Amino acid sequence: MAIDAAEVARQLVDEEYPDARAAWLGGSVVRGDASSTSDLDITVLLSGPPAPMRRSLEYGDWPVELFVHTEASLEHFSEKDRQRRQPTMMRLVGESIVLLDTDGSGARLQQACLDEVAAGPRPLTTAELELLRYGITCLLDDLTDAATDDVRTAIASVLWQDAARLLLTGAQRWSGTGKGLLRELKSYDEAHGTDHARLLLAGVRDTAALVEDVDRILDQHGGRLFAGFSLAAQPV
Questions:
Q1: pLDDT tens readout for residues 147-182
Q2: Beta-carbon-side half-sphere exposure of residue 135 (alpha carbons within 13 Å)
Q3: Which of 90, 163, 164, 188 sits CB 3.0–4.6 Å from 113 for a disulfide?
Q4: In sequence order, what are the beta bridge partners of 45?
């Protein structure tokens, strides 16, 4: 599938962006976990306008997401990824098939992104860690006090994600959202011989098991936090 998809993607780039310096095909098709509704995630490098921009279209029976950048805008969005510890841009370019490389920038930027993904995010600051612990502690209290199954499910669906982010970022690993968060969590489990992905997701339906696993994660970072927590506001 990836080879066929790459040919379609390469043809699209040739037609739409004949002046492109480089282009990469990333996402689920390249990872090997594409479904019947998966799209082609194509990043294109230009020297200037119309970059930066994003387009969604259909081409060759494929839904396509086009991310059109200059080197400056690639770095801008990579920095946003660093700040939120979710390497979306870096994975799209780094974990990719190079479709086009006219000046060496395709291979150079792919390797730079791969190196950064492998290095992981910067460590949590003390304030960031305490904020995560405090938020999760409050969710655990809300879960205990939940009056209905609907309320418990709503809280648990947020709690497992916040606990997963604490586990990952506390270990200087990348985080994510939705299915991306689950992929990162499974990767952590594979590396550490743990079972957090299954336990946290099962905990959305079995909240007692969820609380137990969340407390295990919190205990790695000092446990629950409420009394003594403070957060300074930005001056106005």
A1: 999 999 999 999 999 999 999 999 999 999 999 999
A2: 18
A3: 90
A4: 22, 69
What structural domains and CATH numbers belong to the chain? 2-119 (3.30.460.10), 126-219 (no CATH)
| Backbone angles phi and psi of 55, in degrees to 5 | -135, 145
Instruction: For the full predicted model, state whether its pTM sits above 0.85.
Output: yes
With bands split at pLDDT 50, 70 and 90, how would you rate the model's confidence at 3?
confident
pLDDT of residue 174: 97
Cis bond upstream, residue 50 (ω within 30): yes
91-146 confidence digits (pLDDT tens): 999 999 999 999 999 999 999 999 999 999 999 999 999 999 999 999 999 999 99
Mean per-residue pLDDT for 40-55?
Answer: 96
Conformation bin of residue 172: beta by default, left when phi > 0, alpha when psi is -120 to 50: left
Q: 45: which residues sit within 8 A by CB, 6+ positions away?
A: 20, 21, 22, 23, 51, 69, 70, 71, 74, 105, 106, 109
Q: Is the pLDDT of residue 232 over 70?
A: yes
Rg (the chain; Cα; Å): 21
